[in-house]
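User: Structure tokens for both sequences below?

Assistant:
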Amino acid sequence: MKRLKIISVLLVVVAIVAFTVPSEKYFDIAKSLDIFATLFKEVNAYYVDDVNPKKLVETGINGMLNQLDPYTDYIPEEDLEAFSIQTTGQYAGVGALIGIVNKKTVITNPYVGFPAHRGGLRVGDEIISVSGQNVQGKPTSDVSSLLKGKPNTEVVMEVKRPGEKNLLSFKLIREKIKISNITYREMIDNELGYIKLDEFTPGAAKEVEAAVTEFKKQGAKKLVLDLRDNLGGSLYEAVNIVNLFIPKGKEVVSTKGKVEDWNKTYTTLNNPLDTEIPLVVLTSGSSASASEIVAGSLQDYDRAVLIGQKTFGKGLVQTTRQLAYNAQLKVTTAKYYIPSGRCIQAIDYEHRKSDGTVSKFADSLKREFKTKGGRKVYDGAGLDPDVPVEATTFSSAVIELVNSGFVFEYATKYCSEHPNPASMKNFRLSDQEYQKFTTWVAEQKFTYATELDQKADELIASAKREKYYDELQSQFNELKTRIDQNKNTALARNKPELSRILEQEIAFHYQLAKGQVEVMLDRDPELGQAHKVLSEAGVYRKILSAN
């Protein structure tokens, strides 16, 4: 029956296409869909092994969508809940993120104020069972499903915590979870209000408005909106956030696509909260989509100074379309343009190379635009910050160590052995504590491959092909020995970077996002630049001036 349904859906699509596609393309589309339906029928009937119809068709769908852009996705019915949580930030459960760290299912983020956090669960707690079902070794999706459920229902979690001999049991009552878009909002001195905005789910603009209103009551005369690593979300929330800082009736963004009736210009509909307070927006290479609408619009109106790194460059808009059998399609339907007229899309998905890869728009194709005050800005490559700050780079040793989960595990161990500090602002690891960390890592037999390892292996393989290896073997052995010696001292050589990363991880274990932000407040390079720019009104105005 399922097989007949799939073929029936394809035939219905053929019929629908007749009414939605120009006549010159209809024949090719109908022909291709007919070929696909008959091909599937033949494979299903005659392939030597039994095939899974659903899996086969989904593979075909995903292969087709892979030829477009990474934002156009097929969402089968069973994935709708996860998609809804991602787009709305709402679900019913205990309010905790979970993940796999070195084959253990652990709590990675108990959201502040929700059942898991209120009940006493901590970052790093290993989940052993949920409501009597052992979950060790099970996928996180299975564990997550057990934790979610109808509001006001009970769930019992057993966890293993370092420093505790016995398992700990937590009886929690599920409730509706609405994840906050703002992970940190504080006055960081007598005049500067700081907001770390991580999401653009419904309510983001109201949260920012409430934070700014509270800051102004406390005497704030300057603001920093941190959009670093914010991947975006709702376009409407982006428009409403911009509306807080620019007058009513101003264009924020326009969308243009194939369906002209869907093209739209979004303007500010409300009176602003404050059009004068000096504003800095922090950006990074992972600031994308809605983040770029906010940052780009404020830049185009010369309303904020952008500090940090060039943004990601996602100038595409997605629309969700309903499909048969409760499936959905998230499809790119338009490009968006900010007030200066530029589209900041950086990757050209329309013109793929013969091998299927895509490239960024060439510098020669980028065009010059002007902000409202006459400053030069450019399209085709994300947003250029007004005050660039070089991004922190890490060696392969640091990256591999973080990815290994050992930093997370050591932070869990450290927090079980030391009391929670009253504040993380002055928290620093001593040299002695860092040495304990390196000793512990060595005991875990941490190994990693570097780019030098790869290049050396390639060189040896080349020498063997060219029959030079026997002559050069001693030199190759010496090279490999030196590389290994270099790796053995990697933790000592990367101490400044690893210390900061470990301090941030420990701070998060102790006090979640609040601790993670506060432990870096006085040594955050982008925030430091924001202080400098905002400390003198003349510097701020000069950056926003065309002269």
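Moving on to the next sequence.
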Amino acid sequence: MKYIQKISAIVLLLFLVAGCSEDFLDLAPKDELSESTAFSTYDNVKTYAWGFYESFHAYEGKVSGQIMMRDVDADLMQYGSWATGSDYLWNNVNIPSASTKWSEPYENIRRVNIMLSNLDESDMTDEERNHWRAVGLFFRSYEFIDLLVLYGGIPWLENNITDADTAILYGPRNSRDEVAANILRDLEWAEENINTNGDGPNTINTNVVNALISRFGLFEGTWRKYHSLSDHEQYINASILASEKLMTTFPTLHPDYDDLFNSEALQGKDGIILYKRYVEDQLHVLMATNFRSSNASWDITRKGVDKFLCKDGQTIWNSPLFEGDKDKYMEFRNRDDRLLYTTPPPYKVTLNGATTWEHTGVDADKEYFAVMEQLSDELHKTLPDLNWSGKIIAEVPNFDEAGFNKTYATGFRIWKHFNQLNTGRSSADFADAPVFRMGEVLMNYAEAKFEMGSFDQTVADQTINLLRVRGDVQPMLITSIDANFDPTGDPTVDPVLFEIRRERAVELMGEGLRREDLRRWKKMDYATEVKLGRWIKQSYYAKTINIQNNAAEGYVQFVTGTPPAFPEHYYLYPLPSDQIVLNSALEQNPGWQ
């Protein structure tokens, strides 16, 4: 097992805190702090703890793509650069020789444990020590959750260790039961002892701890239920309790769904529990650029688009408002507005150069211009679609145009994180990133209540129906949901639970949670179905596009063939082989050889 052996410098994370002075970035300590002085005072500990915020990668570097890649390994998205499909879904995963998914969490855990081991010697009050212990336990739990989700049982590090602690360094894995129980123990202690308001706006506080309990409790509880393990109730109940506290604290939601992901400032917006702030010309990323350039290789599948209800609250299979999916314009009519924020609606214009255009004169080609003007504004999702430099895309879906804003796999390019805050500048985006938000918490609560047999119309109104307001969709009425509500639904899942899961898929589309949802429900077989896209006519396009059954018209099928059955042992990922070489007591997950 590899751990960092020393902390040589304290680096202040550029996790900007709302309300800080404009020269906050200039206040980062330049000198090194020894372990003997780093934790002597409240302010020193605070400085050290800023580094923990690096765990929230948010929109940095390649993380934007990694968020999408997790969903590509599920059923509702497809990656246009993988003509042979996802290795995870096609049983082509190899045991990695090394992996940052293992090493980085343990490096961060060791950093936290160094702080925890020194708090008792600090010049602080008991209340102050408890606050920083709670902050440390939050971040340590955050890292252990990532490891548990991927690998199951893993080595638990309760305290700071050195090279002399060979029994721990080279010991066996702790059981999933032990690791999960320790995580819940630590988070519940943190929730009771952390400063209610943290260390100021947008820092780890009681609400943030409860948001992580809400997420972890649901994951672990449903994993245990559907993977036939014991004690699922205590984790689901923990999720319910934490979610209820947050629902009391955050009774209203920000009305603009798109603004949650493309806002220049998330500070003060209803329902935002924690966010990462980016600032133009100080700390920027390439998240929006990824979806306004040739990097835009992530598409939503036919199944993903079909998840969005019609405005009457009915599925496309039963709603009289749905006009069919054989016409690219009709299938977007009368649908949940969140669909239009997730994938660009169809249109066509005539170009007069790279940056000027006019309507074609065909009414259908301009139908969604007025719609998007009502839903969005010139800094976000208006039509026509533009790349980062302001060049116009003549048509959506864009299969043919070279270079930027193309759909590579299905015809439904994702643009959930698309904004025009920085048109003319590449890779210099500065929209804030939500880390925890109430949309997820409300879905956690709805699902957890169902799993405990207490989901009713009141709960639906407190959760799903609040979210539907932002999509201009009629409320869920439980009494109207039966096996016929969605004839394509999973017959092994209660129809009401299936609809709760549908709403979760819609609300959280493209946020990197779908793969873990399918894993915890033990429903990865959903992702082994053939992934399809738009209905198209090949004759319309100069480029040859793969269509199901090689037909002249039909649903796009980017990857030929059907994935094999999902192997049972794939539900847990393989440990990197270098760790097993270093520690002979560390056993590989079953099935991985």
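User: Anything stand out in the second?

Assistant: Residues 299-431 form one domain.
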